[in-house]
Amino acid sequence: MRKGKGNRIKGMILALCFLALAMVVGGASASAKKAEPIRIGLMPDVNSIIYLIAEQEGFFAEAGVDVELVRFQSANTRDAALQAGQIDGAVSDVLAALFALEGGFDVGVTSITEGRYALLASPHSGVTEPAQMAGKQVAVSKNTIIEYAADQIMAQSGADPNSLVKAAIPQVPVRMQMLSAGKLDAACLPDPLATAAQLDGAVVVSDSLQVHITPSVMVFRSDSLKSKGEQLKKVFAAHDKAAALVNGSDDARWKSAYEEMGFPESTWDYIKLPEYRPAQLPSETDIQLVQDWMQSKGLIKEEYSYSDIVDTSWLD
Predict the structure, then answer these.
(1) Who wins on pLDDT, 139 or 171?
(2) Does an H or E element contain 156, and which?
């Protein structure tokens, strides 16, 4: 083989090698630049449905953010997933945020969510008002927003929360089923399962709307707030767009999202979706009310300021 021809072949081989290397490096670089999705945990309540509607309407994609919605049936599994880093944030509550902070796990409350929590009694219990709940067995998820709501509904109605006999049943659907089956005197449930229980004969003793408490919030890992701050701003922009659309259109349009959440079909004709407000900070009063309740029960020892709990970086 002539020397010149051999050199040309070697040159071609080297060029191909460099090209292949460039493709590998370029592909790796592109993969490295691809943003991780924002993973948001949802619960079986109307607080969560607005995020599913935002996904169905393509608002996350329009905002240029990749969002993965993850479903949970209990607050305990949701919080475990948040601490394990399996999700960035979740439809949650102030209690969960304070528990995390007390345990040394950095999270931030970002915004309120909408929802209703009802204290319902079995039709066989004879209970129709909070004062009659004394000594009755009520199913709650202990040390969560559900127990807090039950206590506040009692206290704000002039009844003694300590008079309740509480049964710890963390899974929301199980709590509803046991109430409907007459195995409990009462239960505290979020909508729409509260409405489903009411349709099965349960009596609404009172609810969070009547006593004006709003402890439901979005909670995010602090490291996610720092590393994915720009993406989170887009998530909230998509949320606000979905909220405006839902508030300004007929409820029937959202039946598919309602059913996809796994809510009882029987409740659709009886429930009205809440008026979803744009993403906004919780009030200092609601934050302090929860903190006082938790301290009174010895659930937390530290006193946290509003800025310790609420993250405002997404507003910048």
Answers:
(1) 139
(2) helix 145-156
